[in-house]
Amino acid sequence: MSLKKLLCISPSAAAVAGALGAPDDCGGMLAEWDIHSVASLREASRALRARNYPVGLVLDLPGTEGCEATERFFREHWNVQWIGVLAPDALESKPCRALVATWLADFHTRPVDRQRLLHTLGHAHGLALLRSQPAASAATSGLAALTGDSAAIARLRAQIGKVAQSDAPVLIWGESGSGKELTAQAIHTHSARAAGPFVPINCGAIPPALIQSELFGHARGAFTGAARDKVGLIESAAGGTVFLDEIADLPKDLQSNLLRFLQEKTIYRIGSTRSIAVDVRVIAASHVNLQQAVADGMFREDLYYRLNVLPIDVPPLRERKDDLDMLAQHFFHTFATEKAPHLKGFGTEALRAIRQHDWPGNVRELINRTRRAMVLGEGRLIAPHDLGLAPCSTQERGAGLDASRIDAERAAIGASLERAGRNITHAARDLGVSRMTLYRLLAKHGIQT
Ligand SMILES: Nc1ncnc2c1ncn2[C@@H]1O[C@H](COP(=O)(O)OP(=O)(O)OP(=O)(O)O)[C@@H](O)[C@H]1O
Ligand SMILES: [Mg+2]
């Protein structure tokens, strides 16, 4: 039997021994664990990058590193099941209470009942295993992790957590390369369907002549060349989630078929009159504004409303520039095996140029530029030109001020819309502008309502 991996964070080794006891205590329960102890959050981050720990034990939260650093740490490593051991008076502090409520799977106060603590760790491990099962398959391993600690990504994670509890259709909007598929995968992974399949379908990539048979399958003899029955992609997702990417590209006649499926939860294979019940959750995504597509007569309104039960916006990368450093470092580690051996990381100028750039291709563009720099970079540190970016000249830093102003405007509008529950009248009042001005600003920044 393989040992259960546990990461223990505590400034003192004595505290770890005090909480967990000796291996033969508690009927040898501790012997089931492979424990790695670290003394700080920084060391813990390093350990988590090197190895997957499903469960973490934090002794004396938030320790010497302060609540903000601890919160940042938990945000980054949100997919670990964290258990806390606290001093009896720790919960009297408001920030500590907030940390416990938001990020911990469970906590114990001192004096610790070791047997109970080991039971808690065991439960947390079981839960982590369940949640990680689909992510452990080749197709999705590691993909369910959304890197970033900006407020925007924290909001996205919170939305994913809520939406994962429901079985209703989800409609994800976001620019190309912003992380729509990763978001859909995270919803699936955190849902009760996690043990079932996650089947992504790019509606824009399948030739129109084939799409009906790909989605719904066909019966033998349905058309020339249909030598045997074929199970469609929707049916193959039974018990799990089907992800309909670029849903706006679905031809109109198939939009009707999809609508029928959403209403009746049954499908007909082409050439068959037998209805087949399929238990599948539908998540759709689009980079075009579907409301506009409806207005232009390109997308069925009734299908739009069927799909748009739980809407999620994935923010473009330029609206979460605070994530850029972390994402760049993340991809540097992800593609470490491809890098030139002399390369040690990003230079300061490169990081500055990354912040300066507007990232129209979003995270996918960051991945591509980083990989290119890692292969072609000639110095010890990545320079702006390795990334295909111009260095920030003094003049451009001036332009950066304009960019910062625009960023601030966009952020203020985003925050107001959020506060106003996306109600334009309330958001306009909150911002102190007229509704017309707000509409103009929304169009200027390309913000969807
Ligand atoms: N927050 C993130 N952390 C780590 N990787 C990310 C993040 N967001 C996106 N990625 C990675 O960026 C790439 C693009 O993401 P994804 O395919 O989910 O975007 P998309 O919105 O579906 O793009 P497209 O519109 O081109 O289909 C993927 O390799 C994904 O793993
Ligand atoms: Mg996609």
TrEMBL record:
Sorted alphabetically, the Gene Ontology BP terms of this entry are: regulation of DNA-templated transcription
Q: Which Pfam families match?
A: AAA_lid_14 (PF25601), HTH_8 (PF02954), Sigma54_activat (PF00158), VpsR (PF20161)
Q: Which GO terms describe its molecular function?
A: ATP binding; sequence-specific DNA binding
Q: Which part of the chain is the Sigma-54 factor interaction domain?
A: 146-375
Q: What keywords were assigned to this record?
A: ATP-binding, DNA-binding, Nucleotide-binding, Signal, Transcription, Transcription regulation
Signal peptide segment: 1-17
- Protein name per the record: Sigma-54-dependent Fis family transcriptional regulator
Record-annotated membrane-spanning stretches: none
Output the InterPro entries linked to this UniProt entry.
AAA+_ATPase (IPR003593), AAA_lid_NorR (IPR058031), CheY-like_superfamily (IPR011006), Homeodomain-like_sf (IPR009057), HTH_Fis (IPR002197), P-loop_NTPase (IPR027417), Sigma_54_int (IPR002078), Sigma_54_int_dom_ATP-bd_2 (IPR025943)
Check the record and name the SUPFAM superfamilies matching this protein: CheY-like, Homeodomain-like, P-loop containing nucleoside triphosphate hydrolases
